[in-house]
Amino acid sequence: MGKQPFKLGIHPINWVGEDVKEHGADTTFEQIVDDIQALGLTGTEMGRKYPTDPTVLKAELAKRGIQLTSQWKSVLFSDPAYREAELEAYRKHVEFLHEMGSTVISTCEVGGSLHFDPRRTPNEKEVLRFDEAAWHSLAEGLNAAGAIAQEYGLKLTYHHHGGTAVEQPEEIDRLMELTDPNLVYLLFDTGHAYYGGADPLAVLRKHYDRIAYIHLKDIRQEILDQARASNADFVTCIRQGVFTVPGDGCLDFAPIFRELLERNYSGWAMLEGEQDPAEHPAYEYAKKSLDFIQTFISQESR
C-alpha cells in the first residue's frame, strides 16, 4: 500500500442512523466495533449505541485498538438567549472527549434547521437563513466554544451540514470569515459540500488551512436529482439513499485524495455512508470503499 499521511477511520452512522432512527435500530455496539476492528481501522466517532461511561467505553475501544476521534455536538448560538446554557453544555461535551483522548469536537449550529432546531414546528417547510444579527451571534458563540475546546487541547471543527443554515458554499465562506481562525476550524465533509451546492474540491482548496477533520461521503446523483425535483427535505433524502461511501456515488474523489496527499494532511478522515444498512450492509460497503481508496493511494505513490 502507498504512503497515506492521513488517518482513516469510520463513523458508526454506517451501521446505525443518527437522523433516521430506524436505520440499524437493532444493531449492537459490539457488532459495530467488531466490524471496525475487522476492517483494520483505528478511529471511530461516538454513536448512539455506544456506552456513555468513559471507563467502559475506553476499555471496549482499547481492546480493539480503536480511538474515539470525536462526537457530534449540536449548538444554538444564532440566538443569544441560548448562549450561556449552550456553552455550559459544550464544556461538558469537551470534558468527555478530552477524557476519551479525542482531539476535535464536531460542532453544528441547529438554529434555522427544520429537523434540529427545538424552536421549529413540524409543519414548517424551509430552512431559515440567518440575518446579520444571527450571523454575528453565531460567530461570537462559536469563538467562545472554540476557546473552551482549546482549554482542553481540542479543536472546534464546524460541520457544514445539509438541512441547516450553514450548508451552501457562500454560507461556509461567511462562517469562516466571521470566526477566529485560531478558535474555529472546519470539518470538511465531501458529501455535505456537494449536497449544499458546492464543488467539494473547491471548498477543500479554499479553506484548507482551517480544516482539522474530514468526513468522506459520496452522493447518489439520481437520488439527489429526484429529491430536488420533489423538494424533499434533508431527512427524506437520507431515507431515499442520497448518501453512500466513497467510490459508490458520483463524486470524483481522485483530485480530493491527491490534494490531501500533496498537502500531507495528517488528521483523521472518516468514512461515512449514512444509508440503510439493511439495503447497504455497512461492513461490505466500507470494505469496498477502503479498497477503492487504497488502490488510488497505491497508484499515486508509484
Name the descriptors.
302 residues, alpha/beta, 8-stranded mixed β-sheet, 11 helices, Xyl_isomerase-like_sf, lyase, EC 4.2.1.44, Myo-inosose-2 dehydratase, myo-inosose-2 dehydratase activity
Question: Main β-sheet, in a few words?
Answer: 8 strands, mixed
Structural class call reads: alpha/beta
How many DSSP H or I helices?
Answer: 11
Shape: globular
Keywords: Lyase
Domain Xylose isomerase-like TIM barrel: 34-294
Pfam families: AP_endonuc_2
Protein name: Myo-inosose-2 dehydratase
Describe this structure in words.
The structure is a single chain. The protein is an alpha/beta fold and 302 residues long. The chain is 41% helix and 16% strand. It has eleven helices and ten strands. The strands form two sheets. Strands 1, 4, 5, 6, 7, 8, 9 and 10 form an eight-stranded mixed beta sheet that branches. The N and C termini lie close together (10 Å).
Please specify the SSE layout and strand pairing:
Blueprint (H helix, E strand, L loop, with lengths): L6 E4 L18 H10 L4 E3 L8 H9 L4 E4 L2 E3 L7 H17 L4 E6 L22 H20 L3 E5 L9 H10 L5 E6 H6 L4 H7 L4 E9 L1 H9 L4 H7 L2 E2 L9 H9 L5 E5 L9 H19 L2
Parallel strand pairs: 1-10, 2-3, 4-5, 5-6, 6-7, 7-8, 8-10
Antiparallel strand pairs: 8-9
Helix pairs in contact: 3-4, 10-11
Short description:
With 302 residues, this protein is of the alpha/beta class. The protein is built from eleven helices and ten strands. Keywords: Lyase.
